[in-house]
Amino acid sequence: MSASDVQPPQSYRKEEVQEILHLAIARKTEVEELSRTQLWEIAAELDIDSNALQLAEQDWLLQKQRQQKQDEFARYRQEKLKQKTIRYLIINSFIMLLNFLAVGTLSWSLYFLIFLGLPLALDTFKTFQNEGEDYEKEFQQWYVKKEMKASISNLWNRIKTTWLS
Rounded to an integer, what distance in angstroms lies between the CA atom of residue 104 and that of residue 80? Predict the structure, then answer.
């Protein structure tokens, strides 16, 4: 079956138009990046209103900024999980060694292994859960706390520079 055998439909859904235009623009340009001026020229050729393009560009920038913050939050959560895992391994290694030295076999220490492993398993699940109401709430709390720390740090730096000047 060749491309000439395929009959195009009379209409397209919004998502299909976006996909087709994306492929066409990718084929038209040889380079990986387009300048902002080129973006505006392409939009003008497509008869896209400059206000609509500007709003779309702002939405895209906000989405990109939010994604960067979410990526940073994911790294923060993974670092916390790593610390909890190391603590779990150290504690359980000590308990298992104590059990082995006392009894000569691993018996009661396995209960600690399971008992202390349950919260770690739940934390692991929570760390890699990146959607939902709980995730959004935790993300917002982390972000507000981060912004507060940055504001306090900036204020303190200004006070120090004013005081020392």
Answer: 35
Residue numbers in the chain where pLDDT is lower than 70: 1-4, 28-31
**In the chain, what are the domain boundaries?**
67-140
The one-letter amino acid at 109: S
What is the separation, in whole angstroms, between the first and last Cα of the chain? 78
Long-range contacts of 139-142 (CB under 8 A, 24+ apart): 139/69, 139/70, 139/73, 142/73, 142/76
Structure tokens at 6: 């395929």
Residue keyed to tokens 């770690």: 120
Torsion sign (Cα): 97, 98, 102, 106: negative
Place of tokens 């308990």: 95
Q: How far is Cα 85 from Cα 92, in angstroms, rounded to an integer?
A: 10
Three-state SS letters, 5-66:
HCCCCCCCCHHHHHHHHHHHHHHHCCCCCCCHHHHHHHHHHCCCCHHHHHHHHHHHHHHHHH
Q: Which two tokens stand for residue 27?
A: 């084929």
Can you give the length of the chain in residues? 165
Q: What are phi and psi of 154, to 5 degrees?
A: -65, -45
Angle 149-151-154 from CA coordinates, rounded to 5°: 110
